[in-house]
Write a structure and sequence with these properties.
The protein is an alpha/beta fold. The chain has one domain: LmbE-like (Rossmann fold, 3-Layer(aba) Sandwich). It contains eight helices and nine strands.
Length: 263
C-alpha cells in the first residue's frame, strides 16, 4: 500500500513539475514596462472597423513611451477581406485575421477587443453598412467594452463621413459616438449593469490620416511625436509598429520598420 501511494505521489509530482515547466517568465523589458504602467491611471481605447485598421505606431508609442494602458477595439474580425495566403473566406478568414491581430498585440503590448459585427465586404456609406449591421447590438457591444475597460480617452481611426473611404470605416465612428454617451447612461443596456458599472470617457478623438490622395490633416490639429528609440526594446516605436503591422500577412499589410521620430 505504501509503495502504491509513493508511486502515485511521484507520478503527480512529475505531472505538476512538467506542467510548471511550460510557464515561461516574461522578458525583463516586459516586466519593467508593466511596472511603469502602475504609475499611470489613464487608459486609451483605439477603435476602428477591421483588423489592420489600427495605427500601430500610435499604439506602440502610447504603451511603451507614455506607459498608458491601451486597447484596440476592432468592430469586425475581417471576414470580408482579401486572402493572400490561401482560399479561406468568410468565417475561416475571420479566424485567420483574428489570430494575426492577436499576434500583433503581443508585439506592441495593447489589449484586443471585438464586437459581433460581420465584415461583409466593401460598402459605400453608413446607410449601406447599417442595412447589414444591427446598430443597436453593435453599439451595445462597444458600450460593454467601454464599461469593462473603462478608458479615459477613445480614439477613432476614421471620421463618420465619406472621408473615411469605406462605409464600415465611417460606421465605426458613428457607433463610437453613440457608445461614448450611452456608456454613462444607466438606462442604456441596463442588463450589463449586473456585471459592470456605467462609465463616462472624458474625450472622444479622431486620429486624422493621409492615405494616398486623401489628406485629413491640418496645421491646427493636435500632434504628437512618435517613433522615439526605446532602449528597453532595442528599437524605435516606428520599427516596432512595422513589425506589428507586418503580422497581417493575409492582407499583405506589411510595412517597413522605419526608424526615427515622426508626427
Amino acid at each position: 500500500m505504501f509503495k502504491k501511494l509513493t508511486l502515485v505521489f511521484i507520478f503527480c509530482f512529475i505531472c505538476f513539475f512538467s506542467f510548471a515547466q511550460q510557464v515561461r517568465p516574461a522578458k525583463s523589458s516586459e516586466i519593467f514596462r508593466e511596472i511603469k504602467t502602475l504609475r499611470h491611471i489613464p487608459k486609451v481605447l483605439y477603435l476602428a472597423a477591421h483588423p489592420d485598421d489600427e495605427n500601430t505606431g500610435l499604439l506602440s508609442w502610447l504603451i511603451n513611451e507614455q506607459n498608458v494602458e491601451t486597447a484596440y477595439l476592432s468592430l469586425t474580425r475581417g471576414d470580408g477581406g482579401q486572402n493572400l495566403l490561401g482560399t479561406e473566406q468568410g468565417a475561416a478568414l475571420g479566424l485567420i485575421r483574428t489570430h494575426e491581430l492577436l499576434e500583433a498585440r503581443k508585439l506592441d503590448g495593447a489589449q484586443q477587443f471585438f464586437t459581433r459585427a460581420i465584415d461583409f465586404g466593401f460598402s459605400k456609406n453608413t446607410d449601406d453598412t447599417f442595412k447589414q449591421w444591427d446598430a443597436d447590438s453593435i453599439t451595445a457591444d462597444v458600450v460593454w467594452v467601454i464599461r469593462k475597460f473603462r478608458p479615459d480617452v477613445i480614439i477613432c481611426r476614421f471620421p463618420p463621413t465619406a472621408a473615411a473611404g469605406h462605409g464600415q470605416h465611417a460606421a465605426s465612428a458613428v457607433v463610437a459616438e453613440k457608445a461614448f454617451k450611452a456608456a454613462a447612461d444607466k438606462n442604456m443596456f441596463p442588463n450589463q449593469l449586473k456585471y459592470v458599472d456605467v462609465w463616462q470617457p472624458k474625450r472622444l478623438l479622431w486620429n486624422t490620416f493621409r492615405f494616398g490622395s486623401v489628406n485629413t490633416t491640418s496645421e491646427n490639429q493636435l500632434k504628437v511625436t512618435v517613433g522615439q528609440f526605446d532602449p528597453q526594446l532595442g528599437m524605435g516605436y516606428g520599427e516596432l509598429a512595422g513589425l506589428s503591422r507586418s503580422l497581417h500577412k493575409s492582407q499583405g499589410a506589411g510595412t517597413q520598420s522605419v526608424a526615427g521620430v515622426r508626427t
